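note to self: dont lose this again. the chain is below, predicted strucutre after it. 249 aa total, dont forget to put it in the shared folder this time
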Amino acid sequence: MPLVWMTMQEIIEKLLILQDRNRQILRISQELELIQPERANLKKRATGTQNQLDAAKLKVKQLEAERKRLDLEVDAKKSQIEKYANQQLQTRKNEEYRALAHEIEMAKEAIFKIEDQQIELMEQVEAAQKQVALATQEAADAKKGLDEQIGLLDGREGNLKKELAQLQESRTALADAVEEGARNRYERLFKSKGENVVVGVEHSVCGGCHMKLPTQIITLCRGRSELVTCPNCGRILYYTPDMLLTPGD
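---
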């Protein structure tokens, strides 16, 4: 749209509307960027509870394996005792008989020690099974909570994407309504300065860089006859009657 078709005040007003729309787009885009990390964090926490459950189950499995090993060891010792007892019945030598009796006694002592280990192991198995039950419940709760929160995130993401598409569509229309030269200058500044491009003048300073402005620049802003930029940061300046111009007012 040629510059002569609209006043400078109209150009500034349209730029301010465009800037507001860009800020909304930026805010929505930033919110969308946070969705995936938040989703990943939720899944990581749920994975942590599942890992705890897997570790608890593995411990029970290891303890059960150890208990079976001890059972086999007891059976082996009992077989030895039976073997030595049979050998005693067959021998007629006192020295050999006593040696076999000693072996039998050693095997029985070994069985006593193993049985003590078995009792202790049973207590450990019981505690580990309780831990599995607790971890199972925690994992189930975490899975349920994860599904609910992921569902909420998905819904929020869908709404944000829809809102972003609408904002981008309206932004295009708003940009097309701005005089081409002013729009091009705004777009260049937006890329380098971010969302704060069109700024007001108050207390004789730029609303962007907050540097004091020369009197000539302030006069041009008040005149509203041309697009005025800050000599310090290059941002587009505007002035309205409700703004204070005198420093310290």
